[in-house]
Backbone:
């Protein structure tokens, strides 16, 4: 029995109170303690890589018993998570500086880390749910950390979605439990499933699970918290929310598709629909936003949409290798890219204390390192060849082309449409990333604003440069890097290893179409439509899902519920009142006279003979009525 | 024999002495006495055995320590001790605090008696005694609203007890035999079902089940905080224990399964689950909100018990333990807030997390447990209840849906408090006012219990593990 996964899960949680205690004292000790904890965790996860596959079962723990597993997709995600946490931790001291209450953030940073590792290393749905909730609740503090008014609103939305998502998830787990007679282990579920046939309970379970996981991943229609929360959270936290937390949802959806309901076309189509909408919606929102972190947040939505499209194809179970590779690798890329981009945004925010793009013209010109790293991230996410994102996007694109070819008929047409939308959304990615890069690094500072060098400490520089370098290196040699990762994870996703020549003309064509589309959109929409007098403008949002649909709906439901509950409740209370009125002629029954100091002892002179008989009669009447009613019920039921 | 008498009479005698005689340090005396009682309870639970105190022909006064009584008695003893320690600081400036401690101890004695009762007659005696001994707690603050509340409390108490008595008379002598796991072997005819229904409704009245629930949110918030913690968290469990004993140890799960009484009680319990949560969501007064919440949470237990399946039984027991811990904790937090700041309403609590961090951290953990969020004990209970309900047919599924809706409402009425307490805004500044360890220690211990309970829930119901096989020998297993 290997206890390493348990260490990876529990160590950060155990370290959280220690770091909290250490960091109340002094700044230096605080940062050192955090770095030490995260580094140790990273080493633990790195050691997992060398272990291969394995499981660990704890029968007595939790209400159901817990089990952990490592190897394949789990280890990849666990290691990725620890890595991005390291980057975030490196830049945290710079970002937070001498702020108050950093120790609170640090403690919940580690708590969430433990929760996420628990999700990634879980081997059954119960354990996944258990740690998912811990992660969900602990990361609430990240969103609320800054305590501004928008922060409070975002944190409330986050919390509402987290709680509702958690309950949907619980419902899903219970439905699976009901549908499989108590089987929750992923491997057992995978062995049990039969192609194309799913019981209603299992289908319901899969849908609820997907909604619950999707709420965290930012899947439409439960994405509402995401564009609100990322901009207000501290930048190191936004990097993690976007890069890692969403991946826990993605992990859950992947597991659902692979182990629970593979081959069910209804489910795959639902997921595909949600994925396409998320992909397009996010991209359009990102294109129009004028807040630096909001652009990045909406971009996350869009990229999650890409991953969900791949996950849907994986769940369809027809041609899984490319889809599995695409989903996994895009998740890996997106985590690294968003780490770079959000940490860069943090550096800019730290220097200018604003996120409004119109005030940040040329803001990044002061640091070449920042420009290079940001550019790498931008090119990578836009899917430019030689950078990481290109590889995963090509895989997803190829997978959709393959599906269109394989399926034929209506389904084939559908996948052709998906392919077109995919390329279009890819183009939009290029458009909004170009928008960001041009504003931040190409345009000149306005004349009145003094140009200045950006301040940026060494640790943050490393946290930016390492993932950027990684994205470039892996993107330049995809067969050696990405395909190995995909091959390592393939068995756990039920797919085969594959090999593609990424830089062949055929594969480059998709990327070129996408990039040309993007350039056109940038030129026409961003420069002509959205820029007025040199200023970016944001079109008014006429419909907000949260404000116009969810909130009124919840309010109405609460109103109806309260009305019902109060009426029912008043029924009994009213009867008692009416009886008391009838019996006591409206007089208040007295138990203890007001002037009596010895409570619970009746003083004789105050008791009128009527008082006792009133109460006694009332009690007897209550009793009699109850008895008669129940007898009547039981006799005639 | 002597052990049980000692265990019951010792706190009762000290309590009576505190009520009637002057005492210099009632708080310390009471805490020591409650500690002694807990020790005696542990001894009784381990070496008690069967004991017959008095035989009156048809009736007998008899005690025994089986799995259920061990769990309940230790829970009761421990929570009373914590509340009394807490009250030591809470009631420091109260001129009549000796009476508060006295009646608490009297109630403790009565509750220990009913935990160890071996037949329904003994149980009923102590049940009545407990009702009477706890009634003055509601009156303690002597506010005008308290008088009305006390009247309701007494009225419903008597009414519930009268229903039980009616059921006992209807059912006759066979009901009064020793408790036996799986039932004493009554015929499942209309008469005994009617008797069962009366007794069940009577006991559930104490646990605030609709339609006899109106008294609970009226009376519980009136008592001083430690006392309302006991009433809401612990004393209500006497009703639960009564229902449990009647259902599983007198009538038997197999005899009741599928009967109209079971269906009716399940429906009532589910109605209450929703009702309590919804009303709590709409309530602004902190203690009253918590009392409504008890109405809802206790009906989870009734729902679990009435499922009459091993899963439901398991969930109900876990819910008893973890609801008691969380609810006592929440009331004590409310008490600490009242004691230190005088704030009563939930919307006044902005920034309290900065002023009393330890109390509010505990409050958060208790809230999460009550909602049922891992890794706390409440989640284990809710999970077990849901799993139990999966076999319960249509009403079981309805139960799961209602449990989930209720969890959502619970989050709705507890988490906003946590949110404004800890995230009041950048500019918020306030003096810290953390209470003394005598207040925060019980809170910390309860939070620890809930954390441990989330990780190893069965640890707390281990004494009952062997019972389950006997209870369901005929049916569901």
Residues:
């Amino acid at each position: 029995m290997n206890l390493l996964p348990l260490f990876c899960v529990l160590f950060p949680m155990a370290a959280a109170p220690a770091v909290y205690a250490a960091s109340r004292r002094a700044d230096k000790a605080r940062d050192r303690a955090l770095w030490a904890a995260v580094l140790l965790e990273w080493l633990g996860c790195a050691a997992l890589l060398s272990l291969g596959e394995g499981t660990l079962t704890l029968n007595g723990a939790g209400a159901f018993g817990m089990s952990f597993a490592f190897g394949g997709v789990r280890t990849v995600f666990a290691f990725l998570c620890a890595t991005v946490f390291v980057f975030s931790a490196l830049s945290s001291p710079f970002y937070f500086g001498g702020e108050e209450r950093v120790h609170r953030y640090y403690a919940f940073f580690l708590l969430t880390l433990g929760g996420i590792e628990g999700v990634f290393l879980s081997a059954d749905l119960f354990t996944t749910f258990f740690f998912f909730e811990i992660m969900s609740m602990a990361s609430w503090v990240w969103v609320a950390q800054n305590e501004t008014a928008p922060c409070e609103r975002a944190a409330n939305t986050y919390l509402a979605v987290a709680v509702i998502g958690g309950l949907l998830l619980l419902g899903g787990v219970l439905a699976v439990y009901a549908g499989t007679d108590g089987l929750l282990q992923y491997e057992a579920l995978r062995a049990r499933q039969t192609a194309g046939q799913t019981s209603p309970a299992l289908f319901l379970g899969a849908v609820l699970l997907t909604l619950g996981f999707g709420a965290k991943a930012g899947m439409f229609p439960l994405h509402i918290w995401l564009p609100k929360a990322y901009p207000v959270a501290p930048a190191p936290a936004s990097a993690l929310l976007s890069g890692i937390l969403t991946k826990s949802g993605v992990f859950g959806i992947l597991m659902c598709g692979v182990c629970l309901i593979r081959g069910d076309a209804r489910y795959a189509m639902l997921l595909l629909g949600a994925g396409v909408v998320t992909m397009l919606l996010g991209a359009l929102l990102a294109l129009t936003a004028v807040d630096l972190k909001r652009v990045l947040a909406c971009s996350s939505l869009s990229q999650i949409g890409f991953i969900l499209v791949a996950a849907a194809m994986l769940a369809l179970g027809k041609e899984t290798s490319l889809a599995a590779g695409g989903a996994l690798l895009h998740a890996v890329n997106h985590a690294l890219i968003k780490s770079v981009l959000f940490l860069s945004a943090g550096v800019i925010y730290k220097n200018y204390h604003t996120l409004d793009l119109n005030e940040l013209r040329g803001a990044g010109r002061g640091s070449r390192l920042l420009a290079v790293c940001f550019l790498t991230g931008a090119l990578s996410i836009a899917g430019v060849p030689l950078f990481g994102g290109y590889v995963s996007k090509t895989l997803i694109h190829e997978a959709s082309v393959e599906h269109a070819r394989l399926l034929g008929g209506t389904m084939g047409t559908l996948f052709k449409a998906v392919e077109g939308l995919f390329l279009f959304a890819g183009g939009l990615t290029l458009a909004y990333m170009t928008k960001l890069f041009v504003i931040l690094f190409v345009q000149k500072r306005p004349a009145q604003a003094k140009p200045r060098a950006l301040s940026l400490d060494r640790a943050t520089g490393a946290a930016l440069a390492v993932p950027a370098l990684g994205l470039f290196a892996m993107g330049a040699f995809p067969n050696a890097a990405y395909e190995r990762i995909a091959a390592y994870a393939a068995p756990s996703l039920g797919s085969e290893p594959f090999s593609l020549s990424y830089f062949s003309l055929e594969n480059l064509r998709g990327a070129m179409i996408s990039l040309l589309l993007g350039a056109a959109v940038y030129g026409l929409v961003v420069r002509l439509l959205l820029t007025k007098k040199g200023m970016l403008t944001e079109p008014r949002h006429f419909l907000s899902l949260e404000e116009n649909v969810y909130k009124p709906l919840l309010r109405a439901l609460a109103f109806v519920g309260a009305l019902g509950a109060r009426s029912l409740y008043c029924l009994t209370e009213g009867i008692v009142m009416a009886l008391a009125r009838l019996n006591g002629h409206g007089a208040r029954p007295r138990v203890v006279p007001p002037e009596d100091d010895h409570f619970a002892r009746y003083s004789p002179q105050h008791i009128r003979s009527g008082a006792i008989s009133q109460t006694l009669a009332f009690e007897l009447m209550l009793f009699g009525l109850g008895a008669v009613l129940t007898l009547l019920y039981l006799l005639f039921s | 024999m002597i052990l049980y008498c000692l265990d019951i009479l010792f706190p009762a005698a000290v309590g009576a002495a505190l009520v009637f005689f002057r005492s210099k340090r009632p708080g310390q005396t009471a805490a020591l006495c409650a500690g002694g009682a807990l020790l005696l309870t542990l001894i009784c639970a381990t070496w008690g055995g069967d004991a017959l105190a008095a035989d009156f022909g048809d009736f007998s006064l008899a005690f025994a320590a089986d799995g259920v009584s061990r769990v309940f008695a230790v829970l009761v003893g421990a929570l009373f001790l914590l509340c009394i320690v807490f009250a030591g600081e809470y009631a420091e400036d109260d001129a009549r605090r000796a009476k508060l401690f006295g009646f608490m101890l009297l109630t403790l004695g009565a509750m220990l008696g009913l935990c160890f009762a071996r037949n329904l007659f003994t149980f009923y005696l102590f049940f009545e005694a407990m009702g009477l001994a706890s009634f003055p707690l509601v009156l303690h603050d002597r506010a005008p609203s308290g008088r009305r509340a006390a009247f309701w409390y007494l009225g419903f108490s008597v009414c519930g007890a009268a229903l039980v008595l009616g059921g006992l008379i209807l059912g006759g002598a066979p009901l009064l035999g020793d408790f036996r796991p799986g039932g004493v072997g009554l015929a499942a005819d209309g008469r005994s079902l009617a008797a069962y229904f009366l007794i069940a409704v009577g006991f559930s009245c104490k646990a605030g089940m609709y339609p006899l629930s109106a008294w609970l949110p009226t009376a519980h918030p009136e008592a001083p905080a430690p006392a309302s913690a006991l009433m809401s968290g612990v004393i209500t469990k006497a009703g639960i224990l009564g229902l449990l004993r009647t259902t599983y140890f007198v009538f038997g799960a197999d005899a009741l399964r599928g009967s109209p009484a079971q269906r009716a009680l399940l429906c009532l319990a589910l109605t209450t689950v929703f009702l309590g949560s919804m009303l709590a969501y709409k309530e602004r007064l902190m203690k009253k909100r918590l009392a409504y919440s008890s109405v809802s949470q206790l009906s989870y237990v009734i729902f679990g018990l009435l499922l009459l399946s091993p899963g439901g039984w398991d969930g109900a027991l876990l819910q008893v333990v973890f609801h008691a811990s969380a609810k006592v904790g929440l009331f004590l937090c409310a008490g600490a807030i009242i004691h230190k700041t005088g704030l009563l309403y939930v919307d006044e609590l902005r920034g309290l997390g900065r002023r009393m961090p330890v109390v509010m951290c505990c409050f958060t953990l208790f809230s999460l447990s009550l909602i049922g969020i891992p890794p706390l004990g409440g989640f284990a209970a809710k999970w077990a209840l849901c799993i139990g309900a999966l076999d319960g047919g249509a009403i079981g599924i309805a139960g799961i849906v209602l449990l989930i809706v209720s969890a959502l409402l619970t989050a709705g009425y507890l988490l906003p408090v946590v949110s404004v307490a800890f995230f009041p805004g950048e500019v918020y500044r306030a003096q810290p006012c953390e209470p003394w360890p005598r207040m925060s220690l019980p809170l910390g211990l309860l939070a620890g219990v809930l954390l441990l309970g989330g990780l190893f829930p069965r640890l707390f119901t281990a004494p009952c593990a062997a019972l389950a096989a006997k209870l369901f020998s005929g049916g569901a297993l």
